[in-house]
Each structure stands twice: as C-alpha cells, then as structure tokens.
Amino acid sequence: MFAVGVNSSVKDFIEAIKRPDAIAAGYIGQFIAKPFFGFLFGTLAVTTFNLPTAVGAGIMLVSCVSGAQLSNYATFLTDPHMAPLSIVMTSLSTASAVFFTPTLSYLLIGKKLPVDVVGMMSSIVQIVVAPIAAGLLLNRFLPRLCSAIQPFLPPLSVFVTALCVGSPLAINIKAVLSPYGLSIVFLLFAFHTTSFVAGYHLAGTWFRKSADVKALQRTISFETGMQSSLLALALANRFFPDPLVGVPPAVSVCLLLPKAPPVAFISALSMNCF
Question: What is this protein's function (predicted)?
Fold first, then answer.
C-alpha cells in the first residue's frame, strides 16, 4: 500500500476528476457486482461443493476488499494512457474500503462468523490509509528520495507478498492439497473470471458511445477482476478464528499473480487484432 502512495501524485487525482463517470463505473463493478459474485460462489462452495462454511466466508471476504495495484500494471501494459485513471480508481476504492469492506463483510458474512466491524475499520486504516498517506507525502515533499527508492519497491513488494502468502498456505497446506482444495481453486478462478467479464461488459454498455470505449472496458475489467487479496488475507487472520477463512484469500493471491500478465497480454493482442 505504501508503494501505491509513492507511485501516485496530486496530478493523478486531477485526472480522475475529469472522468467521474469512469470512477462511478469502477465503483459499481468493485463494490456491487464483485460482492454479488463473491456471495454467489461462496454460497455454492458450501451448498453445492460441500465445503466448510469458513471457506465460503473466505471467498466472500475476497469479494469485499478493494481493487489491487496489480490492475494498474495490467492497464499500463495494455493502455498506458489509462494508467493514471486506473491508479486513481484503485487508490480511491482502497481508501473507501474503510467503509465498504467492513459493511459488505457484515452484510455477507456477519451472520455466519463473528466480524468485528469497528476493529476491522481500525485495521484497514492502519494497513491501507496510513501507508498510502505516507507514500503520498513522501512523493510530495521528498521527490528525490521517492525516486531513489521506487526501483526497490516492486521486488520488495513481491518478497513481502511471498511471505504473506506462504504463511497461511503452509498452515493450511493439507486443506489446500486436499480434494476440496481443488474445488477452492476452481471456485476462485471462476469468481475472478466472472468479475473480469462483468467489468468488461459493464463498461461496454456504459461507455458504448465513447471514443475510447475499448480502453475503458479493459481498464474497468482489470479493476473489477483483480482484488487486494492480501488485505482480505490480513483481515481473515486478524478477525476470524477459523484459519480456513484465510485459505481462499491466499489462493486468490496465488491465482492473480500468474493470471494478470496473460490477461493483459490477451487484451493487448485483441486490441492489436481488432
């Protein structure tokens, strides 16, 4: 989250003001369509696949968090001129997750597992808002230092991500490798794919008369399909007593990291072909 702040600037937010309609579409995909799909696949996990309730709750939790910075990189690969908009959409959705994530978690999961809404809000402020604010301030007042550390942030982020993912996967390795572990992978793959497609068609309908409709479709598709699963993982470890709740977020991270480049490549290829 600190890297998001370091790579953002006031100029990025000025760019966002020029496209409030795109931001609104991103919000609908992020906090309405995606939670709906999360609730759908989380319910299917329990009712159809006979998975533990905690697993279904973990899938729903993944759908309640904000967009991932990975969507910014995917957008940069396909539509560089849309990267500032993508960064702003991710930053704003991450900041507003202070309200949306606890609320959605309570609505979708609150009756199944205990959720500390106040504590979750406090945790999101510490995990999300504070690092982003620190990065923005560093970028604003110490640009030289910011430029000096920027090359080290991507590998550092990958290393920290590996540590965050490795721990819950190691703890729950038997669950991941069990017969229902494959079901979790399938359900999360279907969830992310459905979110990508929904975001793409949502933007296509909303901006069908816009000259840059295809670029907007790809940008909003990435924003809708890529979630901050690490945030979901941190919240699962902090607020849910059953460690199985952390398995879907951990698997989601493992799915998104290798899935993002191919999705971006296919999008870029289709852009060049059509």
Answer: May function as sodium-coupled metabolite transporter across the chloroplast envelope.
pTM: 0.78
Grouping H, G, I as helix, E, B as strand and the rest as coil, residue 18 is coil
Pair 59, 49: CB distance under 8 Å: no
Q: What pLDDT sits at residue 122? A: 76
Range of the domain at 51: 2-273
DSSP letters for 159-173 = HHHHHHHHHHHHHTH
pLDDT at 271: 53
**In this predicted model, what pLDDT tens digit does every residue of 193-228 receive, in sequence order?**
999 999 999 999 999 888 889 989 999 998 998 888
Q: SS3 letters for 72-115?
A: HHHHHHHCHHHHHHHHHHHHHHHHHHHHHHHHHHHHHHCCCCCC
Average pLDDT value for residue range 28-35: 93
What's the CATH code of the domain at 184?
Answer: 1.20.1530.20
pLDDT tens digits, residue range 43-80? 999 999 999 999 999 999 999 988 877 787 777 777 77
The residue behind tokens 């990025």 is 12
Domain count, the chain: 1
For residues 146 and 20, the model is more confident at 20
Say how far apart CA 172 and CA 177 lie, in whole Å. Answer: 9
DSSP notation for 30-74: IIIIHHHHHHHHHHHHHHTS---HHHHHHHHHHHHS-B-THHHHH
Neighbours of 24 (CB within 10 A): 11
Structure tokens at 127: 């995990």
C-alpha dihedral sign at 61, 62, 63, 65: positive
> Which residue from 259, 222, 255, 264 is spatially nearest to 71, judged by alpha carbons?
222
